[in-house]
Amino acid sequence: MALNQDWFVRYEELHRGPEHASEVMRQTEGWLGTQVPCDVHMPLIEAGIIPEPLEGLNSFACEWTQLKSWWFKTSFQLDPEFMVYDTVELSLESLDAEADVFLNGRHIGHHRSAFYPFTRNVREALAEGDNSLWVRVTSGVEHFSDMDTAFLKNNLIDCEAYGRGDPRRTFVRKPQYGFGWDWGPKVPTCGIMGEVTLTGYRELAIRGVRAFTKKADVRAELRVEVELESFLPLATTEATIAVEVLDGVRVVLSLEEEVCVHSGVHFLDLEGVVEGAKLWWPNGMGDPHLYEIRVAAKTARGRVEFPAFRHGIRSVRLLQDRVGEDERLFAIEINGVRAFCKGANWIPADSIHARVSDGKYATLIGEAREAQFNMLRVWGGGLYERDAFYRECDENGIMVWQDFMFACGLFPDHLAWFRKEAEAEMDYQTRRLRNHPSLVLWCGDNEDHWAIVQWTAEGRKPPFFGGATLYNELAPRAVRRNCPDIPYWNGSPYGGAQPNDHRMGDVHHWHEGMMSPDMEKRIAPEAYDRLDAKFVSEYGYVGPCRRSSIEAYHGGSPLDRDGDLWKYHNNFFEKDTVAAGVSKHYIDAEGLSIDEYLHYAGVCQGLMYGYSLESFRYKERCSGGLFWMYNDCWGEVGWSIIDYYATRKIAYYYVKRAFDPIKLIIRREGGVARVIGINETPVPVRLEAEAGYVSFDGQQRETRPVAIELPAHSRGEVLTLPLGERDYLQGTLAVIPRGASPQGHGSTAPGNGASPQERGIAPATLRTEVFRKLRISAAELKISSFEVRGDEASFTVSSDTYAHAVHFRLDDRTRLSDEYFDLLPGESRQVTVYGVDASFSSEGLRPTSICRPEQA
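Above: the chain sequence. Below: its structure as tokens.
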């Protein structure tokens, strides 16, 4: 029975504690109607009591919500039939964060975590007919004093700019990002953040099901572990347990066993073989095929069903093979194939995360798939996302690196109550998420191991490693207990003699990148060619949103880059980097208009992301490139490539091309240009191409034909080209595919739309100098083969000379298959525009490219 509707909420002062419940509930005024999930900001916004916190400077006007206690109430009717159950459990999925729960005026429990449910058997407290449910909840930090947090002094990665941060945050088990970060405002969450249900059980319950692949093959071996609970304390129960695995409507595996169920908890293991199994593959490597699993128990008194779930048959392993005397790989292996993890870090999609809809999850994960991601890292300062997020990742072939929710600080695991809360959270989440094929790695924390090393080096060594018990003991035990087939990693970054060692494990590339005191290291993409890490799990570059999004979060205020509003919504690690990058690569940034700034800054972010991600894929010992970050929780000039409004930033297209499943990458190395060929698909590919020097004006073409073989699931050197004595200010080395033929059948299209073989493979070009120094004339772009079919328009764009960052003067929310790409002389590219109507015409495209400043 769902209890999500018809709630009311009001606030009281913090000192009005649970002992005042009856008095508060007698109040007749000041109640706001709502439904759950509910963050307290939501009904306040709807009633006009507070402005939208994410627009303008409004978040400051909402800070008072953290200083109140919030009281929720609802009532519900129970029919006589509901009273026959042996056990009736009340479950509140997420209470953020300190909460007291009352049923029919009786205090039934206290809860202090947003990361696992409040669940109680309330059978004796229920009444036939009218029932009332009350919840008091606070943000949680009010319970902790300066003395409690004294051990954190100088040992908390906090974001103090613009009043963000709170040293008490690590004591409260709730999303840490709500207290503010460099990329997000201080909008602390509080409320009933999940579903509220009553569930009746008679005699027997199926408490848990774990399905996993023992052998991923055409004859796949599957094991299903079923956890039962009998409510008969003195007697056994005769039951038949049935497991069905379905592919669509077809049953591909049926298992059944008669069992004598013991009192209390009882475990049962069933195994079988799925013939002709279709494996779950990450996006680009194959089809993320899903089966449906149904589990039921039948007794003489009736039938109990576990909620059916979709599941993928796949194996996963963390490869750490030696690749040198003191080096090891750090790679995810899926179904026996080493994957290159392509993607970014995921943060909550709204500062008020309770209002993120299933539709927004679908949009964001769909856009990640379209950008040819195969991984998202759920960062440890946010939250364990709702089921809808993981379902979308399952269906779209997006692997999930899942942090436990501990980030950037010391955590008080010297306190017994805190360890107990963390252990309950870990146990619940590992059980909840274990059946998702997308989940391929559990990780203990974000930057907490690394921080200890950093603080010690800076002479402010903490009194103890607050959190070590969590990451090094409790978390690995929870993973081993509930999902031992999923690898565990202690932290991020972690590995080697110290965290952030390039020789093994994963690294966060910040101090030599965007956060370097040396501006040149921040804005030079070639710096990433020198990075030799085995897996880059964080790094980033800042860029602005499109104009429509900036206008949205300005809330009607004028756009002023020197104003407080602009600065507040500007990442404070930016440190003038955006302007310096624009000036280095394109045009002097001083005096640019808003539109010019957005344009050039967006292209610079795209350049940095596109080039760096290619650099990681170029290095054969590197097995992952995850940039910071994919999405946003509010509107800002920041790290993301898709903004809070789900609008693509310019950099989105650069990342998408960098992640092509079939790709050629060229770099200068050892006096030659070395070409790496990548084929992530399950089908071998043969490329016919021309390789050599091409002048930008198209008049000089010193090339030769080459044939390139790309085996399935491969990455390696395919070609070397001599640099020669050529003018690289007027031309470049390139490998230009003339066609691709799959050497087999059954290819799965990576990403949406046509396969790479069908849509063509982009040329690889050698970058030799910043764009503003190249001798390039303005390009004349031509549109041909324009056609509208349904809600899509397709066309071909071409140029006789080199054209840089080809784009179209469309509404900035328009989605295209590609944009901001380069064309070599004589090259053409097919582009699709999505979401058009029958009136859309080629005149609306107005193609253009970036030329040198003196020709702009």
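Residues 594-618 form the longest helix (25 residues).
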